[in-house]
């Protein structure tokens, strides 16, 4: 089963088991992970599900769509090369751990 490891700005981390096909945003909301707002509910319309992927996670996943790339320009915290929108990052099947860092702010 895939896992998502959420790392807060403080360095505190939690690991959550998720069914394959679950987005980083949805797993965060369902499990009360702090710092991911997801105001639009995953419609690619708010940019408040911003996360930073670690390098291995970035390399293991498909790149962002053009629509996601465009919305990444609207994130509240610093945009970095590893920035993604959590509603568009989907846990693949298998024993894989995605590591995402929660930004300082979403609004
Ligand atoms: S939840 Fe709104 S863009 Fe991801």
| SS strand fraction | 15-25%
What is the CATH class designation?
Answer: Alpha Beta
- N-end to C-end Cα span: 32 Å
The biggest sheet, with number of strands, parallel, antiparallel or mixed sense and barrel status, is: 5 strands, mixed
Structural description of this entry:
With about 110 residues, the chain is of the alpha+beta class. It has helices at about 25-30, 55-60, 65-70, and strands spanning about 5, 15, 50-55, 85, 95-100. The chain is globular. The mean pLDDT is about 95. FE2/S2 (inorganic) cluster binds near residues 39 and 48.
Essential attributes:
binds FE2/S2 (inorganic) cluster; 107 residues; 21% strand; alpha+beta; 19% helix; Ubiquitin-like (UB roll); 3 helices
């Amino acid at each position: 089963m895939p896992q998502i490891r959420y790392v807060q700005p403080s360095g505190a981390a939690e690991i959550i088991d998720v069914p394959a096909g679950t987005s980083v945003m949805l797993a965060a909301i369902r499990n009360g992970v702090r710092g991911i707002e997801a105001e639009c509910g995953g419609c690619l319309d708010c940019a408040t599900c911003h996360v930073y992927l670690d390098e291995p996670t970035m390399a293991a996943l498909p790149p962002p769509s053009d629509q996601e790339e465009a919305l990444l320009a609207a994130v509240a915290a610093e945009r970095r090369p590893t920035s993604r929108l959590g509603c568009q990052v989907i846990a693949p099947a298998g024993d894989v751990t995605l590591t995402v860092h929660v930004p300082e702010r979403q609004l």
